[in-house]
Write a structure and sequence with these properties.
By secondary structure, the chain is mainly α. The protein has helices at about 10-55, 60-75, 80-100, 105-120, 125-140, 150-165, 170-180, 185-195, 205-225. α3 runs antiparallel to α4 and α6 packs antiparallel against α7.
């Protein structure tokens, strides 16, 4: 019995075509998922900037309630991703800082839980924002017996954030602010200036503008000493 085998070149071409078809079937799904996550995070970032820097005092509570709901939906939609957890934590801790009240301490405790969960998934996403956020919580929240604040732990986290994003506006700002809070004015000035000169983030112009205004205010405080 004579079996005629196809030429090697034909087999290779067929396999190549099959591989192309398989990739074309699955790649759009993966890309669509990634873009959807990116769009969700970009939307949260933009809405947070509006809430944090452009919302009147009278509307803050309502705006942050709506934004917290949106962040919860993002976490539910992408349960295996660290980014929504980080942004939910940022939003509820900002809410606590802006609106205060009896619920503020509970909100920052919830934020810490979310950030620790995000750290286990991927500590490096969003340029180390998980460590910037944890560090900022630890030096701004009161210590025991009221809260979990701890300057030593704050410094550990803030230095981790700087290691991951040494030129970033947020990593330098929060470390500079931490140093300022602890009376290290010369060092604080150095990091705050570095934050002020950080490269603009193309997708976050409003947040950059608000942060630079905060930096300028901190530098004015240092000038008094």
């Amino acid at each position: 019995m004579n079996i005629k085998l196809p030429k090697v070149s034909n087999v290779t071409s067929s396999l190549s075509l099959l591989l192309t078809i398989v990739i074309s079937l699955f790649l759009p799904l993966k890309t669509a998922f990634a873009n959807n996550l990116d769009d969700t995070i970009n939307s949260l970032q933009y809405d947070w900037a509006i809430a944090n820097y452009k919302t009147s005092t009278n509307d803050l509570e309502k705006v942050f309630q709506q934004l917290t709901t949106k962040a919860k939906e993002a976490v539910n939609k992408f349960p295996n991703n660290a980014e929504p957890l980080i942004w939910k934590a940022i939003i509820i801790s900002s809410d606590a800082g802006k609106n205060g009240g009896f619920s503020a301490l509970g909100k920052v405790k919830d934020a810490r839980i979310l950030l620790l969960k995000a750290e286990k998934i991927d500590p490096n996403v969003l340029n180390g924002s998980v460590y910037t956020s944890l560090g900022s919580l630890y030096y701004q929240v009161p210590g025991w017996p009221i809260g979990f604040g701890d300057d030593e732990q704050a410094e550990i986290y803030l230095k981790k954030a700087l290691a991951l994003n040494p030129e970033g506006i947020d990593s330098n700002y929060f470390y500079g602010d931490f140093l300022l809070e602890n009376g290290h004015y010369a060092e604080a000035k150095k990091y705050l200036h570095k934050a002020s000169n950080a490269a603009a983030r193309k997708t976050r112009p409003l947040a950059d503008q608000g942060r630079r205004e905060e930096i300028a205010a901190k530098l004015k405080i240092i000038e008094r000493y």
